[in-house]
Amino acid sequence: MKDNICVFLDAGHGGVDPKGNYTTAPSKMHDHKTGVFHKGSIFYEGVWNRTLVNKVSEKLQTLGIRHIKVHHEYLDTPLQYRVDMANWYHRNFASGIYISTHANAFNTQARGFEVYTSVGQTAADPLATLLFNTVKELFGTRITYRSDTSDGDPDKEAQFFVLTKTAMPAILIEHLFFDNLEDAKLLMNDEIIDLFAEAQVRTIIKHFS
Predict the structure, then answer these.
(1) Fewest 10 Å CB contacts: which of 61, 170, 173, 179?
(2) Using CA atoms in the order 180, 183, 186, 192, what is the torsion angle rounded to 10 degrees?
(3) Topology (CATH level 3) of domain 5-14+23-208
(4) Where are the domains of the chain?
(5) pLDDT tens across 84-105, in order?
(6) Is 173 within 8 Å of 128 (Cβ atoms)?
């Protein structure tokens, strides 16, 4: 592992503040009307994102791999702030990669895992492919996979802010669909969370090796 690298970790959106208020958009939560999630039957994407990133951080800390969380503990800080922080450290402290963690939502029926890069072939594409393949190795048929192989690799492409404004290779991961009841149940499973975290860590090691 190289000494001058840093992994920039971003848990998408906001969390729950000390008063119990969810600090991000209502679209980043879903009431399943049944089951036990973050607040009764309500699933909070921002809370889940932080749970996963904290697990990734723990694993990286154990391995002695330098990393910086660019999100706030619970506030939904602007994307510009997160990107500016990562870019500053990337240019002045240690170069590296940017990983933005999310869970998806659409129509309550869609399911699956997907990873995004910016449009075109960039340095992020091999990173995304490594992650996608590592997730498949760890999960097998336990989850659904969503990909776009039209350009020869599995990542989807989009002009998301954190993908186009970062100065380093950046990927955005959608870990299943939290508005789908079955996917949401998987996301609340500690083993599933650990496997998703393990996939990120193994990808980071492979990328820098």
Answers:
(1) 61
(2) -140
(3) Aminopeptidase (3.40.630)
(4) 5-14+23-208
(5) 999 999 999 999 999 999 999 9
(6) no
